[in-house]
């Protein structure tokens, strides 16, 4: 497992590293510079990112939240103090684990496991949501194409669907693709 530890303080990063020493087959990368942080982390290509921010200002928090939004990785963030606004912002930014005053070597491994599991669960939910939205959009396109065929050719709904299905089979394409083509052609021809 590749783990990026982001901390401007090498001594605090060492505490995190200490908590990860027992992990087998683990590569640690410590990043202490904030400049070009997203590019640096992308170059490392870690499986998880652990950020220790100590007691960050609002600007620093927002900068790290921007990094979190840009990465598709589990992120555990350690801070010394927090408030409701910072917690809400971290959730919106995709931080998997936001730990207040919890930087101790013996706690690192469970926090890392939690961050990975929470990230994976959230990623599954996002994928399911994207799939459901895609299916809904396809269904809407098919329904709209059926209405166009029904109005323009005087077909019943089953006949319109049969035409879409037949055309899709003849062209080796999906019904949704044919439906989208019908809708696009109708719009180009001045249909509403």
UniProtKB/TrEMBL annotation:
Domain named Response regulatory is located at 2-116
Its GO biological process annotations read:
phosphorelay signal transduction system
Keyword vocabulary terms for this entry: Phosphoprotein
Q: Which residues form the ANTAR domain?
A: 122-183
* The UniProt record lists the keyword Hydrolase: no
- Coiled-coil positions are none
This chain's protein is named ANTAR domain-containing protein
Q: Which organism is it from?
A: Novosphingobium olei
């Amino acid at each position: 497992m590749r783990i990026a530890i982001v901390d401007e303080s090498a001594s605090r990063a060492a505490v995190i590293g200490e908590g990860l020493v027992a992990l087998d087959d683990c590569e640690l990368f410590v990043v202490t510079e904030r400049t070009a942080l997203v590019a640096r982390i992308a170059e490392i290509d870690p499986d998880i990112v652990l950020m220790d921010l100590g007691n960050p200002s609002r600007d620093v928090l927002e900068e790290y939240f921007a990094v979190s939004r840009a990465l598709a990785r589990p992120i555990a963030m350690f801070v010394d103090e927090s408030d409701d606004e910072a917690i809400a912002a971290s959730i919106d930014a995709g931080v998997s684990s936001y730990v207040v005053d919890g930087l101790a070597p013996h706690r690192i491994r469970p926090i890392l496991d939690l961050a990975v599991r929470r990230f994976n669960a959230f990623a599954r939910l996002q994928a399911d949501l994207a799939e459901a939205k895609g299916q809904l959009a396809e269904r809407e396109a098919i329904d709209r194409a059926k209405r166009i065929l029904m109005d323009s050719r005087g077909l019943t709904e089953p006949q319109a669907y049969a035409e879409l299905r037949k055309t899709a089979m003849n062209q080796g394409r999906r019904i949704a693709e044919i439906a989208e083509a019908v809708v696009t052609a109708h719009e180009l021809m001045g249909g509403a």
